[in-house]
Amino acid sequence: MSRQTSLTQYLIEQQREHGHIPQELRLLIEIVARACKRIAIAVNKGALGDVLGSAGSENVQGEVQKKLDIIANEVLIEANEWGGHLAAMASEEMDGIYVVPNRYPQGEYLLLFDPLDGSSNIDVNVSIGTIFSVLRKVGHSRGVSEEDFLQPGKQQAAAGYCVYGPQTMLVLTLGDGVAVFTLDRETGSWVLTQDQVRIPDDTKEFAINMSNMRHWAPPVTRYIDECLAGATGPRGKDFNMRWVASMVADVHRIMTRGGVFLYPWDQREPDKPGKLRLMYEANPMAFLIEQAGGAAVNGGERIMDLQPTKLHERVAVALGSKNEVDRIAAYHREAN
Ligand code: AHM
Ligand code: MG
């Protein structure tokens, strides 16, 4: 039997080969991965663990919170607050930042997460996930504030997601390619199952919520119309469509076989750039996608170049196979 590489081993080897992964970052990733294991256990229990349904509360964005949204948020906070590697955390499910309490040592990293992405799929037993992003606290000011989090995505030290699907998988980048780990439920360990993931530059598959079509901006309508025109249209090929409505699952499919994912601006809420959140969803996914050879834009601009102005900022997203995303970006630039 070939020797398996665990997450711990992978991280130690990365540390040895590329001295740029500090001990604290390694600890942080291990703790996030352990928290994801606990979330996976809760997800798997479903009705037996009384974790399904609504919690009867709303988050800062006015969305109804599910019980699992809150459980996953608490698991991530409890797991990460005492290790000494973090200064503060921010979550899609909390109004403000969570500063590591005084009773614990403070580290130099900032952790951001969407504890349970794809909430609408929890109760129907469809794949959901956790998305996380790691930033360094820059500057030497004492204390930590929301301002410290407002860094463009290109400054991320690490990013990843865990998908709770037929298999539980952790997909991770430390800025040197993308590695995939599968949870071995019998031993409880994360086993490296793919390294240096590459997304094909071309694809025949797109993912978008088509029910919003009448609300899109012209460049998005143009792109999708051309895909739908099929082999006899301007693209000269037939396209297939997939939409799980869990970003983690849709992105994971793209990581596995290519494709393009869009959640564009729409005219129902003209002042909101999009539905997805820049800091908890778009930036970490953009980092992973770029590290796997793909691209990620908000329309005409690279997502990871955007300067955030607030923690819960929203953004339009188009990401995946490079040539498709470049085409979408060109259509947006032509329209301006
Ligand atoms: P959530 O973080 O509240 O779960 O919302 C984000 C999710 C994404 O996972 C997914 O791509 C999108 O919302 C689905 O939106 P829609 O319900 O419009 O299809
Ligand atoms: Mg989400």
UniProtKB/TrEMBL annotation:
Keyword field: Carbohydrate metabolism, Cytoplasm, Hydrolase, Magnesium, Metal-binding
Catalytic function, reaction form: beta-D-fructose 1,6-bisphosphate + H2O = beta-D-fructose 6-phosphate + phosphate
Biochemical pathway: Carbohydrate biosynthesis
Cofactor: Mg(2+)
Positions that bind Mg(2+) 1: E92, D114, L116
EC number: 3.1.3.11
Subunit organization: Homotetramer.
Protein name: Fructose-1,6-bisphosphatase class 1
Origin species: Pelomonas dachongensis
Gene name tied to this protein: fbp
